[in-house]
Design brief:
The structure is a homodimer. In chain A, helix 4 packs across helix 5 and helix 4 crosses helix 8. In chain A, the strands form two sheets. A six-stranded mixed β-sheet of chain A has the order 2-1-3-5-6-4. By secondary structure, chain A is an alpha/beta fold. The first copy, chain A, folds into two domains: 100 residues, Rossmann fold (3-Layer(aba) Sandwich); 136 residues, Rossmann fold (3-Layer(aba) Sandwich). The first copy, chain A, has eight helices and twelve strands.
Chain lengths: 265, 265
């Protein structure tokens, strides 16, 4: 940290709580390796203070961008001047930057981070049948990114029928005829079956779906990062299915952030 | 900077421009040596944005304090909940912190930094006759700190009669009978003669006072930091007077800041 000086540019990550946020410990070594005169600092913002804090941060001349995490990803969109397509579709954002004209633009890299992670591990989604369990914030981001990147057919499952059908209606508008829905998981003909619910974070959570019903040769993917090995992935691996861990999404989101903020090597 | 994480506490230094500000490069190595999980970041704020930026920064849960430099030291006082005596007397502040009750308190360490620097170099102001040239912001801070720390008699000089007499009136209220004023420097009987004007920053500036008129055995002090050796100090040294450099004030201000923010070793 000795190298921070008056010329150092700032990035901030906003969350509540903030102590557990991993972005500073991951991004700052990257900035060091790239020799960038920039630093990412953690910023603890309570929900009631979000507007005032963002209003102040936006006016800091040497602050170039924001990362946004729980619980601010939806609310932050109110404070952007424009929304990139992924932020507009999901109604949530995890990265904002100041554009050359001074406007603040919000984007969302949850979905594209997941897709890039899949590809990097050899699991191309284009032309495949994909089953997605969970139509919440993460599921919405993944659904849009998977269809945008050429998934042939997407089956979305959620126990909340209203949430499910709202998502299906919006997917159908943009990518007609490729997404279907159900209240129970349909993974029997999936090339890739994805858990986009929080199930698996706790040891006694039920499985989000039964990995034995995924066809042999199919991939079982999880967005849960803690624990790294969810019961879903352990069970799927024991059954001989290929597995895809939550951490790959984070790794590739970091690449997206670096590119978005002009920090890529 | 690899050690910044979600638990890191924040301090910020506000200025316009910000690139030349030395506090981050000076304070962050100190934080590292002390093993503190805290970082001081530069924050570029234009005058028109000061209220909004400070309003946002104050609400950041892990931001504990602000350093303030040109041109915000006067205006910042409007955004504090309370003023320490040095900030109230000078009407300017270079350090604000969040108190345990959540209120933001503004203080000013220009004067005390100067006095501590003098003492550290063996020039005790208590009981001495001191001549101060310049009744602006720096002169006001030094005058109050010198009287507070026991100067027997203070002679203040400024070419701006209104500014001079306004300062003398306020000094007289708080420390009756110890401060006098003049339009031209009176250094003939000074134990310590201090330049508190910007004269000396440029090579062709006139001398703020004639150091040959300071009694042999007297001290000639300068608040100008750049250049380190002003013409005043070079001339005084050539005449055999003891000299006291501007940098000592900064060094001891840093100690004051560290103590104020609870960072002292």
């Amino acid at each position: 940290m000795g190298r921070i000086s008056g010329t150092t540019r700032l990035l901030a990550v906003l969350g509540d709580p903030i102590e557990q946020v991993r972005a500073p410990a991951l991004v700052n070594p990257l900035l060091d390796r790239l020799g960038r005169d920039a630093v990412l600092v953690p910023v603890h913002v309570r929900p009631a203070d979000l507007g005032e804090v963002v209003g102040g941060l936006r006016r800091i001349g040497n602050l170039d961008g924001l990362l946004v995490t729980v619980p601010h990803k939806i609310e932050i969109c109110r404070y952007a001047d424009e929304l990139a397509p992924a932020a507009a579709f999901t109604g949530s954002s995890n990265a904002l930057r100041r554009e050359p004209d001074g406007r603040w633009r919000a984007d969302n890299f949850d979905g594209v981070g997941f897709v890039r992670g899949l590809r990097a591990r050899g699991h191309e989604p284009e032309g495949r049948r994909i089953s997605l369990v969970g139509a919440g914030g993460a599921g919405t981001a993944l659904a849009a990114a998977l269809l945008e990147n050429g998934a042939a057919r997407l089956s979305v499952c959620d126990t909340d029928a209203r949430r499910l059908h709202a998502l299906l209606a919006r997917l159908g508008e943009r990518w007609p005829g490729r997404a279907t829905g159900s209240a129970v998981p349909r993974v029997e003909d999936a090339d890739i079956a994805v858990n986009a619910t929080p199930l698996g974070m706790r040891a006694d959570d039920p499985l989000p779906f039964d990995p034995s019903r995924v066809p042999p040769g199919g991939v079982v993917a999880d967005i849960v990062m803690k624990p790294a090995e969810t019961r879903l992935l352990r069970t799927a691996a024991a059954l001989g299915r290929a597995v895809h861990h939550g951490i790959h999404t984070l790794d590739h989101q970091l690449e997206c952030y670096a590119a978005y903020f002009g920090l890529a090597g």
